[in-house]
Amino acid sequence: MVAWTLVFHIMGLVFWVGSLLVVTHILAVHTDETSPEIRATLGRLETRLFKGLTHPGAALMVITGTLLVAQDPEYLREHWLHAKLLLVLVLIVLDLRLYLRTVAFQAGKIELTRGECMTMHGAIALVFSCILILVLLKPFGLPQRRTQLMAPGRPGGSAAWRTPAARPAGCPPPLMRASCNPKGKRLSNKQS
User: Fold this and answer.
1) For residues 112 and 183, what is the distance between their CA atoms, to the nearest angstrom?
2) Residue-range definition of the domain harbouring residue 44
3) Cα(34)–Cα(80) distance, rounded to whole angstroms?
4) What is d(CA 136, CA 29) in angstroms, rounded to the nearest whole number?
5) What is the pTM of this model?
6) Are residues 12 and 62 in the same domain?
7) Are 106 and 48 in contact (CB under 8 A)?
C-alpha cells in the first residue's frame, strides 16, 4: 500500500510542478504576443493546464502525502519533513498567486511582464529543488530514525550489506532477506 501511495504522490508532484513550470513559460510568451487570436489560444492553454494538470496534481500530492503520514505517524517527528511541509506551503502560495494573476491577466485587469513570469518560474524551480534535496538527503532527520532507515536489514539500508562479499554466509540476496538473520542462520517461517 505504501509503495502505491508513494507512486501516486510522485505522479502528483510531476503533474503539479511540471505544469506550473510550463504555465509560467507559456505566460512569458503570452506577455510578448500581440496577435489577439494567439493571445486567446495561449489563454485557453493556460486555463486548461491549471484545471487539467496543475490543480489535480496538487490535490493528488496533498491527499497521498496525508495518507503516507497517516501510515507512519512517526514521520511527523522528523525535522526534514517539517521543512518540506513549509516548502509545500510556499509552493501552494506560489501556485495560487500565479493562478490569480493569470486569471486577472486574461481578463485584462492587470499586465504581466516576461520578467515577472520568469521570476515565478525560477522561484517554483528553486522550491521544488529544495524539496527534492530534503526528501532525498533528509539532512536533519532524527538520529535514531536515520540509523533505523540505514540498518542493514532494511530496504535501502547499508550498501555494504547488499554486496555478496559482505553478506553473512547462508543469507540470500536482499529481496529474500526476511528469512535470514544477521548471523547468517536461516530462520523458518515461524521464527521470521
Assistant:
1) 66
2) 2-142
3) 46
4) 34
5) 0.74
6) yes
7) no
